[in-house]
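User: I've been trying to design a sequence by hand for this structure and keep getting stuck. Would you show me what you'd pick, starting by listing the structure so we're on the same page?

Assistant: Good idea, let's start from the same input. This is the structure you sent:
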């Protein structure tokens, strides 16, 4: 399932929006409608109260992160979030630390994908990944910032 089905604004917004209950129920009225794990979704649907989602991917309040800037620059969701499709329960798999982010900003080539592959889970880069990425960087004018003010605003 494409990440953008639930996170509809991720390509145009700094934040990956949290979906409303209606989005969940578009599928779950037919798929596992009686699952105990979906009780909070059904309760929200019946009561009209929004689901109180638990944030999984944590960044400090003093760090600024723009989802759309990364997605439109060719960084796949899986690079930061892991292969969500294979997770029984979504968990943070990368440290999301300053050093980890800077490693990618200084060497983005391994993380870049064709834009039509951004949400593909289990993506396999081509054998010529570095050549692809270098050409992509040049064509898209990608220049990840490494100065403090890029993330600390």
């Amino acid at each position: 399932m494409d990440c953008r089905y639930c996170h509809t604004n991720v390509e145009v917004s700094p934040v990956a929006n949290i979906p409303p209950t209606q989005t969940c129920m578009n599928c779950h009225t037919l798929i596992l409608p009686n699952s105990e794990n979906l009780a909070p979704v059904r309760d929200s649907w019946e009561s009209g109260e929004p689901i109180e989602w638990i944030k999984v991917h944590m960044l400090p309040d003093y760090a600024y992160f723009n989802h759309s800037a990364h997605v439109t620059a060719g960084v796949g969701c899986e690079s930061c979030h892991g292969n969500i499709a294979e997770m029984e329960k979504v968990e943070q798999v990368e440290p999301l630390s300053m050093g980890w982010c800077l490693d990618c900003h200084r060497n983005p080539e391994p993380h870049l994908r064709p834009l039509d592959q951004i949400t593909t889970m289990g993506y396999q880069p081509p054998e010529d990944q570095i050549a692809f990425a270098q050409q992509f960087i040049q064509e898209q004018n990608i220049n990840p910032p490494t100065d403090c003010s890029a993330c600390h605003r």
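That's my pick for every position. To get oriented when you compare it with your attempt: The mean pLDDT is 95. Helices lie at 21-28, 39-47, 67-71, 77-81, 98-106, 129-140.
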